Amino acid sequence: MRTLLTLFGTAAFLAVNAQVITSADAPTVGYTFSWQTSGWYEELSSGSGQTWDMSAATPSGGAEVFFYILPTLAPGNDFFPDADVALQSAGALNAATFFDVQPDGLYNLGTYDGGGPVTVLYTDVDQTMRYPCTLGTTWTDEAAFETSVDGNPISVGAVTNTYTADGSGTLILPNGTYTNVLRIARTSSETAESFGTTYTTTKEEVILRKPGTQEVLASTIHHTYFVNGVQSDELFQSYYLVPLATGISEARAAAFTLFPNPANYLVTVQKSDRDPVRISVTDALGRVVFAQGPTSFNTLNLDVSNWSAGLYQVHLLDEHGASHVERLLVD
After folding, report:
1. Segment 12-54, tens digit of pLDDT
2. Of 53, 156, 242, 302, which has the maximum CB count within 10 A?
3. Please, are residues 201 and 223 in contact by the beta-carbon 8 Å criterion?
4. Using one digit for the tens of pLDDT, what is the confidence trace for 309-327?
């Protein structure tokens, strides 16, 4: 919701403090990054002049690549006409999260997963970032959402988030040292009602951000889960950002064409090199109808003769995490 927010002393801090997150730091189309989960880090203390040392973070599982794309290229985009960017995981190209970028903040509009398909639509949008944000900034946001499966409502819910920028300093990660970092503490309570059962999730999170970086540098989250008021589970998570140098790879990933388009039998995917890529095709509902790779090719033929008529998206993802998408019309 865009009305429940307050700032304490923001003007004064803007004048003297360098850790200022502004709308210039909002995610943009084409930005690609990787999240690496790690062992739990609890000691990320508040206050100015801190040094947060996560250099010994032990990776837990493989890193996951994400990229921001045009909302019109994302599955389920019809549900989110106000979105400016959509976030996708390289491992789940049939799903996306949609965001609205405003001068006063970043707003989460909801998610779509073609596997159900499942749609989570914020009827009262969720402000996940406040612009400008500096040491001493705080805001509270109340949001509401509806969840449906294949168009059938299954739950309604509400969430209250409180954010406070309460620290600044230097962050040391396994991939480098970052100065001028802002610490933001978040407390969250989310409740969803589904067929007579109440599900509640509380979160205590520390977010570390740096001006000039479009994503969170590191985060630690403590989740606690309740069913009808009784605790059912809890989860501790830490993760950190692994930036990807995508300038060259984005140009390489973009170098492919589709012909004929429209098509009704064979479609040729042609690219200018043989660098390995993962190729996948999703239909208008975000369902994956073809996936292959990583594989090396200059020319690849797709048999679309048994595909239903309609609009499809052909995704190419290179080994550096850069992605490019082209639309294909099957008639």
Report:
1. 434 345 789 999 999 988 787 888 898 888 779 999 999 999 9
2. 302
3. yes
4. 888 888 887 766 667 778 8
Give the CATH number for residue 282. 2.60.40.3080
How far apart are the C-alpha atoms of 217 and 182, rounded to whole Å?
A: 10
Q: Note whether 229 and 254 are same-domain residues.
A: no
Q: What is the pTM of this model?
A: 0.74
Does 302 share its domain with 189?
A: no
- Same structural domain, 208 and 252: no
**Which letter, b or e, does each residue of 163-193 get, where b requires 16 or more Cβ atoms within 10 Å of its Cβ?**
bbbbbbbebbbeeeebeebbbbbbebebebe
Residue 9 reports pLDDT greater than 60: no
For 98, the domain range is 5-243
218 touches 238 (CB < 8 A) = yes
Tens digit of pLDDT for each residue in 225-253?
999 999 999 999 999 988 654 333 333 34
In the DSSP assignment, the letter for residue 59 is B
Specify whether 264 is located in the same domain as 201: no
**Helix (H) or strand (E) segment spanning residue 249:** helix 247-254
Shared domain for 217 and 275, answered yes or no, is no
Distance CA 295, CA 153 (A): 40
- The DSSP call for residue 298 is S
